[in-house]
Write a structure and sequence with these properties.
About 65% of the residues lie in helices and about 0% in strands. It has two domains: about 35 residues, no CATH class; about 35 residues. The protein starts with a helix and ends with a helix. The chain is elongated. It contains three helices and no strands. By secondary structure, it is an all-alpha fold.
Length: about 70
Amino acid sequence: MRSPIVCEILDLHTTANMYPTISTEDLLNIPIALPQETTRQKIKEKVRASRKAREQSKQLLKIAKTGDSN
């Protein structure tokens, strides 16, 4: 939301009181560049691995606190 293009679009919708009033439709029409499919797949894999590691960390913390692995 702080990229130059988004800031420029928000500036177009700024009123005299400097409060950006932008409609949902205008917000959803902000152009977003999508990475190539291979890059999207890599991102997806990293997010999944991160979530799995987070869950494992929670389980290990529970074991460390309680000594119970169930």
